[in-house]
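Long-time lurker, finally posting.

We've been working with Acetyltransferase (Lactobacillus crispatus) and I want a structural starting point before designing mutants. I don't trust myself to interpret raw outputs, so I'm hoping someone here can both generate the structure tokens and explain anything notable. Sequence follows.
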Amino acid sequence: METEDHDLRRKLVQQNQRLLQNLNTQRHCSCEVRQLVSEIIGQKIAASTEIRLPFYSDYGHNIKLGERVFINANVMMVDLGGITIENDVLIGPGAYLISINHKLDPQHRKELELKSVVIKQNAWIGAKATILPGVTVGKNAVVTKDVPANTVVAGNPAKIIKKLQNKRSS
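Top reply, 14 upvotes:
Generated this for you. Predicted structure of Acetyltransferase:
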């Protein structure tokens, strides 16, 4: 069964890459953009949703888009773990939504950890923000500020909850 899942996933990724290449290299009106992205994600996109090109994803079929969503140019969605974007969300240019990671244990480093990303209604993801696996951005939240180096930030409002030790490996 796992081999069948892997083969199906590989075929979907290949199809996704062909569609993305067409999407990002040809001229399209907004209705054609919605149609191509609908094919990529396997869901009809509302006419009220606007996606600026280029748009990127790795898998595509695990993206769920609400209505009146605005996705600016150069947004990347790594969606194997699932990405849900609710109604009225704004996503700034160059944002990354990442729902997949690799295991930390070197013995299992090539194994994947899938954790969904959820962007709740009316949230705003600012330009070049990165949303990591397992993160939910709450309703009406705004993500626009830098996070200091070597810190873990969480909560509402977001606060530094941990400073990381900068250990250099020899």
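Before you design anything, note these points.
The chain has one domain: 1-163.
The chain has a mean pLDDT of 89.
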